[in-house]
Each structure stands twice: as structure tokens, then as C-alpha cells.
Amino acid sequence: MTYDLVIGDRGYSSWSLRGWLLFDAFGIPVRTLTARLYTDELPNLLKDFHPAKTAPTMRTPDGVVVPESLAIAEELASRHPEARIWPADPKARAVARVLAAEMHAGFSALRNYCPMNLRVSYADCAPPPEVLADLARLQVIWDWARVQTGAAGDWLCGAYSAADVFFAPVAARIAGYNLPVGPAAQAYVAAHLAHPSFRRWRAMGLIDGADQEFYRRDYPQRPWPGPTPLPARAVDGTQAENTACPYSGKPVTHVLELAGRRFGFCNAFCRDKTVADPEAWPKFVALYQS
Question: Keywords, A to Z (predicted)?
């Protein structure tokens, strides 16, 4: 048996991103069940996950339903200590929990003014004073965490941890709305955008259903500031170097072209998520480099 995880639209659901990262970034197998936001899909799906009413919601292999990303983080950490979801050092672990708790409960101005949208980046969104205050607070606690834990790398408390998971959607907002933060915060955002699990989630979010009108803004746009994907494109036909999908092992039905070479997949989603960011997918990279 494995875990089940209910998520919303990958391009927009910041809470779902947190829940999924707690599995993918720490190597814990999970089966995802997706429901489109602003429809009846999510409440209908959650009927099988009583008493949950939001995404993400986890069901453990023994059938325990765990809504809320912070509860999911704690339960996974208890069941999988080897994954090091929280830092091993007691002081760093305490700091990480402080960060995650404040993010879980706070920063409402930033959340409301800049809802996460991984499909676009805006050149300017004219953030009001309340949003600027949230950004200032973020930089205060990020700097505090590094001082307290002695973290000198990309992440706030040493190795990548649940604290960083909880700030991944914030990094997406800063990148997506070109929000003004200092050099240290910009470097932290860049680390998130380059994280392999974040890149996989965003690649799926780019092709995971139609745009949601609620998230559309009329601000001027700019290129996404994360790593530039390799220039793959979807093509017709089934002729490819490989005969089996690199993800499922099933026969090839859909094909992409990259650098004059053709690679096959078992369905449109497998192909299109790879087109969106080929280097995000280790199994495809292994095939491409073979």
C-alpha cells in the first residue's frame, strides 16, 4: 500500500504544492488524486476523505485521513524519520517549525494580492504597503533562521526541509509577480525555482488543464525567471528512438522532438509534462543522454 494525496490544480494551488513536495522532495511514494478548483470536483472527491474539506489531504496506508499541510508534514516526519523532513539538529528543527507555523498561519496580504500562478510571470504588480510589509517580514525571519542555524547553503536551516517546503509557494509568488526583495531573498527564490521537485510540479502545472480565470491579471508580463527549459516540442506520429514510455514502461503513443531526436511516451500528459521542462525528469534525462 501507499499514500493517497488529494491536490488541486498544480498551476495554482499553493497548498497542494506544499503537500506534494513533502512526498516528492523526500522520496516518499504517493498516488495523487487531482480535482479542478472552483468546480464540484474537489468536494466530490473529498467525500471519500471524511472529514477533510480542503486540498491537500493525505490518506495514510493504514487509512488515516490527514488534512492540512502542516499536519501532513508532522505525520510524515513521524512515520519516515529517515527522510529528514525536519532538521536532525534540535535547534535547527525548532527554528524550522517556527518558520513553517508562521507561514501556515500568516502573510494574508501577500496571499490575497498575489495568488500563486505558475503559468506566468509579471513585470510589475504595484504591491501595496500591506504586501511590502509581508515581504519585509519574510526577509526578517529568513535571515533570523540562517543566523540561528548557521545555514550557509541554499536553504534556511541547513539541508532542504519542511520549512523550505512551506516557503516554496512564496518563492513562486515573488518570481511570478516580480516582488521587490533583497539579494539574499532573491537567491533563496532562485534555489526554489531550480529545485528538481519544484520544476517537476511546475512542468505539470503548465499543462494541467485550462487556465483558471480567477488568477488572470492584466499586468505586463515577462519571461519566467527560473531555469530555461530545453526547446522540446510535441510532434505527431509514434516513431521514436524508444518503444516504451520512460515513466510507465507502456507502449509509445505520443512523441516529442528535441535536438532533432524523437522520444515517445504512453500518453499526452507524460509527453507534455516533459515538453514543458525536459530536464526536470530524471528518467527522461537518462533516456536522452543514453
Answer: Transferase
